[in-house]
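S1.2 Input.
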Amino acid sequence: MAAQPWVVAVGTIVVLIVFMLLQQKWGNNADQGALSVPIVLAMACSSQGPILELGVNPFTTPLIHELGRQKGRNITTYDTKDKTRRYRKNLSTNWHTFRHTSKENPESDGRWGVAVVQGFRKDTARCIRDLKPNTGVIVVKDADETLVNRIMNPGLEDACSKFRYRYRVRGVRPSTWLLSDTI
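S1.3 Output.
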């Protein structure tokens, strides 16, 4: 049985509070990347339509896979690294497709309920702009304002500002963006 949206929302709020408490105790490096996991789960549970994942991740990829299985949703995962092959071998099904690509920003055809984008990629801003017209919600993980990220992703703040609804989850680094024109 799928979780009710209010249960997911309450669970996400509890997780965010715990992470903020961890940050107060241990500083900004309380748990690198862990903030995006409950956000991805909440957005995927409260939306409809296929899911796009740009960048394989040991936490979010299996989580999205299981959610797709339980909710009967199609998933497409792109990555430029060889680790895609390992995930394809273990998680590939008729509803979860893995595509190895040489491009940082692959052509994404079709409409997506949720797109999960790794923020520490080359040209994340262009990727977000390309996904905007065909995606309900975009979750940009690991989108910190570090010098390296600014060099790799010029225009990220500007691309995010073009959405009607946008929220940057801060508190634990790295931060996460939620972007949508429809919610």
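S1.4 Remarks. Strands lie at 51-54, 75-79, 96-100, 112-118, 135-141, 165-169, 176-180.
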